[in-house]
Each structure stands twice: as structure tokens, then as C-alpha cells.
Amino acid sequence: MNGIRIVADQGEWRGGFEERVLAGYRAAGCSGPLARALLERAVEGIDGWTVATDGTGWIAVGVTEHDGATVGRIHDMTVPRGRAWAERWCAGQGAQRVEVRLSGGAGEFADYPVRQQIRMSATAERAEMPPGLTVRRLTEEEYPAWYAAEEASYIADIVRSGSLTPEQAKAKSDRDFAGYLPQGYLTPGHAFYVMEADGRAVGTGWVNHGYLPGVTFGFSLEVYEEQRGKGYGRAAMAVGQWATRQGGDQAMMFNVFGGNDVAMSLYDSTGFAVLDEYRSMPL
Q: What is the pLDDT of residue 2?
């Protein structure tokens, strides 16, 4: 690794990096506008990254303060076995853990635990409700109890993934919910549902239409614990696709935290492919 050197001019690397990221999103089935919107997110803060080369490939790294910790990020790596150099660089900047965004397989980072996945699927033009299930809007009176349960579930998911401590997860939840739902139940673009079967509620849904070009984001498609194992999980995914079309979008996207193997298996079987995967390792 002694041949790796940091470069001052990032122009040569940057053009190729953005082309590769954009091509990866297009290959995953993203429309042109959606791929460009995702690229903008992927390169956020790029001017502050450190770029190095061994003459054959590139490594791009950076550090940030996130949820009370100094976090190193490996943004790009085309140098074979360049991980050791990237980790040493992050540790030298005081990072307590190092994260990486992956698409198309774990490769050299297979031993990094999965912390989060972004999944997406195009929806059928005539998405229909599954038989035996009905959907109604969550009422404003039901919203406070729903919100409390949703927040508790979100915190538990983060902690289970190993990403944050319970205290850090609670702080993140407070920030995220305030950002996502600044007007609570009346926040524009957001819809809340109750799924019912045989006259009783079996779960809830929360979606954000127009989250990205042509995309509805499924913040939550939750089947109540006592109703699980009855096929409602698969039905909930169909409800999400139906809601996507109701909002005028063509694809549904959502996040799943690491450690939730049951949910990941369900998403695999219902055609929601991994668009981005985030892995991390303590240093």
C-alpha cells in the first residue's frame, strides 16, 4: 500500500466516479431523472472528500460527525485491496467507525455487518389490493397513538441493526420524525393507512408520494405483531404498491435496517431489489 498517494486535483477521478454511480442506478432500473436525483445524494459533500490513487485505481474517503460519533466513510474504491489504506486513513482522522455504500454485492466488505438497505421496485400499472384486505385512511384521532408506536419501532430497528446506542437512536428518531413530519398528520405529500381484514385492523402504512422523481417512499408498512405469520406481510407490500399508484408514482422505495432477516427475505420474494446497501465496522 506504500504506492498509494493522495491527489490534489480530483477532476480525473470525479468524472469517472459520477459516471459509474449513474450507470449503476440506471442498470438497477432507475429512470433517468431518478438516477440523477440519487446521484446528487451520493455525491453530497464530495468537495470535502480525500482522493488517493495507486496509479491503477482510486480511493475516495471522508469523515463526518454523525449521531455523536466521528464516522469515516469509504465513498469509492477501485484499488484492489485498498480497504486497509482507507481504514488507516479514517482511523488517523479520529473515526470511531467506518461506513461504506455498496451496490452490486459486498465484495471486499463482506465481513462488514449490514446496517441498512434501500430497496426499490417498479409497481404494476394496475396495482390492485390483495383479496380479503381493505384499506382506510388513518384518522387524525388515531394519529398520536400511531406516532408513538411508530417511533418506538423505529428506535428498536436502529438499535437492532447495531448502528447506534439506544440513546443515540432516540436522538436520531426525534430529528428524523421532526424532519419528515413537520406538520404531523397534515404534512403535505404524506398518507397514513390502516389495513383491515375481517373487520379488524391488522397493520398500518405510511407513505410519502413524490419523495423522488416518480417514487413513493414507504416509511412504514407495519403488520401488528399478533397478526404476523398469516400472510399479511406480503399483502402489506401489495398495499404499498397500490398506494404508490394512488399517489401518481411508478416505483416504491423504502429502507430496511440490518438484522431484520425475516423482512429482507420477504422483500426478496416480493421483488424489491437492493438499490444501495450500507455496511459499517467499528475501528
A: 57
Inside any domain, residue 278:
no
Question: What CATH number is associated with residue 172?
Answer: 3.40.630.30
Q: How many CA atoms lie within 13 A of 268 on its CB side?
A: 6
**What is the rounded CA–CA span in Å between residue 227 and residue 106?**
34
Domain identity same for 194 and 218:
yes
Residue 65 shares a structural domain with residue 143: no
The DSSP line for 58-72 is EEEEEEEEETTEEEE
Q: Show the DSSP H helices in the chain as ranges.
A: 11-27, 32-42, 83-92, 143-161, 166-180, 232-246, 261-269
Residue type, 41: R
Mean pLDDT across 38-47: 95
The structure's pTM equals 0.86
Which grid coordinates belong to 271?
421483488
The answer to whether the beta carbons of residues 121 and 271 sit under 8 Å apart is: yes
Calculate ∠ Cα 180-204-113, nearest 5°: 65
Cell of 141: 384521532
Residues 142 and 95 in one domain: no
76 and 137: one domain?
Answer: no
